[in-house]
Amino acid sequence: MPLDANPTIAVIGCGTLGTALATGILAPKDTSDSPKFTIKHLIATAGTASSKRAASKTPSPNTNADVVLLAVKPIKREDVFSIPGFKEAIRGKIVISIMAGITTAELARLIYGNDDDDDNDEHNNSNERVNLQAIRAMPNMAARIRSAVTLYTSTPTTTPSTLSFTHWLFTQVGTAQSIPEKSFDICAVLVGCAGSLLLLVIDGLLDAAVAEGVRRPEVQDLVVNSAIGMMRLVPEAGDHPGLLREKIASPGGCSIRALLELERLGVRSAFTGAILKAAERSREMSGSR
């Protein structure tokens, strides 16, 4: 069934990203190149304690919701899904999850249980399970300023209207791109972790300024704005950022000296290893309960 143009959405877990998404869809941008949606009602829940007792205070999604957005921390998913009535309330709805590392298969397990569970009920073999519309997505923290990059993938039974709504939802806080789930772990950590790694770089550059006698607040904006401008040049430089780097590192100059020192210290391979470790952890998370 096509998703109504005026759906009701329940946001489960209004932390930083959940709040950013809720704020974005309540004040939608003009996206004339895609179908328009208007949120009829938005239901928001929040639970900040880590214990199951605190999680049990989080209400189940309203039974009138068309879409349920799961924005809880992945380590709390078992607590949330064990709340009495939660699974029953979420079944048959469109489920969009931004829980890091949680696959669409794991979402199906959370909602309907394992096929071989002794305590499975009649829902497990119902059309609801077979036709589950579940989307796995990963926006980054820039959603707070509507500059996020969001990747999303879905179960094969997800309808075109649901995918259109998903794309519309995430474009309210930046840009959105659909990718195959087999590529999701590595691509998601690039989107989700790259920012924090680049912040580490910025912090190191500012440390150098402090070591040279310059106060951090005096140069922070200079460094950040310089980095933003340089990143915007990358698409124009060609298929590889190395092409742009070569243009900047002139013979005998300061940049080539700095780059050679980083290569001597193994910084490039360290960043590669860090992302590979993050992708490995992302794959592990669906199996961690």
TrEMBL record:
Domain Pyrroline-5-carboxylate reductase catalytic N-terminal span(s) in chain numbering: 8-101
Gene3D superfamilies: NAD(P)-binding Rossmann-like Domain, ProC C-terminal domain-like
SUPFAM superfamilies for the chain: 6-phosphogluconate dehydrogenase C-terminal domain-like, NAD(P)-binding Rossmann-fold domains
Ranges where the Pyrroline-5-carboxylate reductase dimerisation domain occurs: 181-285
Pfam families: F420_oxidored (PF03807), P5CR_dimer (PF14748)
Domain of life: Eukaryota
Cited HAMAP family: P5C_reductase
Family the entry assigns: Belongs to the pyrroline-5-carboxylate reductase family.
Protein name (database record): Pyrroline-5-carboxylate reductase dimerization-domain-containing protein
